[in-house]
User: Fold this.
Amino acid sequence: MQDEQGTPAASVPATSSPARTTLYWLRDLSVSVVIAIIVILFLYQPVKVEGTSMTPALVNDERIFINKFVYRFGLSDIVRGDTIVFWAPEDPSKSYIKRVVGLPGDAVEIVDGTVILNGQRLEEPYIRDEYRDRVSMTRRVVEDGHYFVLGDHRNSSNDSRSWGTVPRDAIYGKAVFVYWPLERLGLLR
Assistant:
């Protein structure tokens, strides 16, 4: 076969051998596995929510993705309202997911279930009244490099009121996306 100028064209085999097809398939599978490992180790990790401490934002047995990249490489600061995932202070083999309420240097107090932050009532539209407890906590100042966290279902949450603040180096992700069940599919706010 020749091209328009009369030079022989490269011949292309009509079919490839089963061995070559298998090698291509294995190569593509290997590249996919490496990319998945990189994504899971450094970028996004799927996790299962266990418990009701973050209801209604997150519910028991829900599956979410956490962004591990955003805090690790300083692309974003941890801000009030973020839903973070961190190693449990009393048992570092477990992870907790809670909402950041107090930043380093903030004065946090709870009066009859209402959070007072730096002398002002904190607006918390993510909490339903029936999930708010009426417990009080004396004023605490959040240490440098630490965060004060609370669950959204306050009367069912083990959080900074019990075990204190969370060190920055224990925080490894930000909850960003619900992928299961499908009726709750979407970005977390």
Residues 18-43 form the longest helix (26 residues). The chain has one domain: 48-187. The chain has a mean pLDDT of 89.
